[in-house]
Amino acid sequence: MSVRQALPNRDSLRLYRLAALLAGLGWLLNAAGQTPPSEVELTRYTGLFRAVVQRDDTALAEALESTTNIDRRDGHGRSALHVAAFGGNHPAMRRLVTAGADANALENDYYDILTIAAVANDLETLRLALQLGCKPGNVTSRYQGTALIAAAHLGHVEIVQTLIDAGAPLDHVNNLNWTALIESIVLGDGGARHTATLQALVEAGADVNLADGRGSTPLQLAHNYGYRNMIRILQAAGAK
Fold first, then answer.
1. Residue 33 three-state SS
2. pTM for the full model?
3. How many C-beta atoms lie closer than 10 Å to residue 25's C-beta?
């Protein structure tokens, strides 16, 4: 059966597109499903958290000396390290991890500092998170994805390439039955950023024939959405 013979009719395609958008809705809202500290939370923080938010190195050093739990959580399960990552506070991130903070901890939405940086398209924070020992293979988010999947969905090309270079798993399948490559198609817009994301994944060796939960291959999906440049990339890589 050819790719075009395997395509759904227009009604089925509309339903598929709607299902894809609904499945990704939690990511599209509020920084792709993440919950950074609110203004109210920021003003109510004390101890380590307050020192991080105020970027006060002296207060942070004092708080570290007096704390009995460096990984203490706020009401949303964020540690001071998560708060530092959300704020791009690199000195605090370094000091917290050096003092023993868990670089791979997950907050209540199951995000680690690497995925926080990936969603924010914050390359400097992402590189630091990797240096501090946050693992690119961590399963994160309520979708049981990875930082790479989050970045691919959003078309953050430099983040995607950095994660690939760091050894992120290319073919991890989340609980939507999508890989990073599939998300670059079904949750992308077919434009330059998502096409470059797909290209980076293909060049890195991502499986171009790994189908989604409905049995649709990446090439079929690209045809479904009429993403011609993606189709060419996939065909050149031997996709079926």
1. helix
2. 0.89
3. 10
Confidence (pLDDT) at 14: 53
Contact 170, 207 (CB under 8 A): yes
Please tell me the total count of domains within the chain.
Answer: 2
Its domain, for residue 185, covers 1-33+139-240
- pLDDT at position 102 over 80: yes
> CA 170 to CA 51: how far, in whole Å?
37
Task: Give the end of a domain, one of 53, 86, 108.
Answer: 108
Residues 57 and 77 in one domain: yes
Q: CATH number for the domain including 189?
A: 1.25.40.20
Q: Which has the closest alpha carbon to 219: 171, 185, 173, 178? A: 185
Neighbours of 176 (CB within 10 A): 20
Instruction: Please answer whether residues 226 and 194 qualify as being in contact, where contact means their C-beta atoms are separated by less than 8 angstroms.
Output: no
Least confident span in 15-19, 107-111, 131-135, 228-232: 15-19
